[in-house]
């Protein structure tokens, strides 16, 4: 088993372990994909064809509005799933972009094959549903932070969740993710004890 598949199995076991037979079927649909820094993986207007497993590197999902304002929504890094999940699960055109921020290594699984597994293997469907539920829970918590917390509180929460993120992600993207002006982000870096 490749190192990437071992990482994937550890993540899956953390969500909901699969039997050896189900794991073999699940593992068989993934293929390795390598991307360079700043490479678009998904573009707004296109359907997301793959569920990604991030084995190495950092990526982001972001949005552009009609006035070209940018909003960074999510960061992904090893070991986690990635991609534009709503476009993938609904097979509708994406409203978002998914790009690499650093050179990245993935495993990726195409929608038709994962869909077939979810329809024929209930434990795989349950594991994917549970993983999506965790993602939804995290998204709702982030919405609360954006609407109710001060910029300093949002910064502190981010560091509690992902203390290593300052070393992984360029600060301009972190500022955008937190909804903070880059100058104020620099001030927070100097103010908040890490």
Automatic annotation (TrEMBL):
InterPro entries: cNMP-bd_dom, cNMP-bd_dom_sf, RmlC-like_jellyroll. GO terms for molecular function: kinase activity. Transmembrane segments: none annotated. CDD domains: CAP_ED. Keywords: Kinase, Transferase. SMART domains: cNMP. Residues 14-133 form the Cyclic nucleotide-binding domain. This is cAMP-binding domain of CRP or a regulatory subunit of cAMP-dependent protein kinases. The lineage of its organism: Bacteria, Pseudomonadati, Bacteroidota, Cytophagia, Cytophagales.
């Amino acid at each position: 088993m490749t190192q990437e598949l071992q990482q994937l199995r550890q993540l899956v076991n953390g969500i909901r372990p699969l039997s050896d037979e189900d794991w073999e079927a699940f593992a068989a649909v993934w293929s390795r994909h390598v991307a360079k820094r700043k490479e678009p993986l998904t573009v707004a207007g296109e359907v997301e064809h793959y569920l990604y497993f991030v084995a190495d590197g950092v990526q982001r999902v972001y949005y552009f509005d009609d006035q070209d304002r940018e909003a960074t929504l999510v960061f992904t890094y090893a070991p986690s799933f990635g991609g534009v999940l709503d476009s993938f699960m609904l097979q509708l055109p994406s409203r978002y972009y998914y790009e690499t921020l650093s050179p990245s290594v993935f495993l990726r699984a195409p929608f038709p094959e994962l869909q077939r597994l979810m329809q024929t293997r209930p434990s795989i469907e349950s594991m994917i549903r549970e993983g999506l539920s965790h993602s939804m829970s995290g998204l709702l918590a982030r919405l609360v932070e954006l609407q109710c917390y001060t910029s300093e509180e949002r910064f502190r929460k981010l560091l509690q969740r992902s203390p290593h993120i300052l070393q992984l992600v360029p600060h301009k993207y972190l500022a955008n993710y937190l909804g903070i002006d880059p100058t104020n982000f620099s001030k927070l870096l100097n103010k908040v004890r890490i």
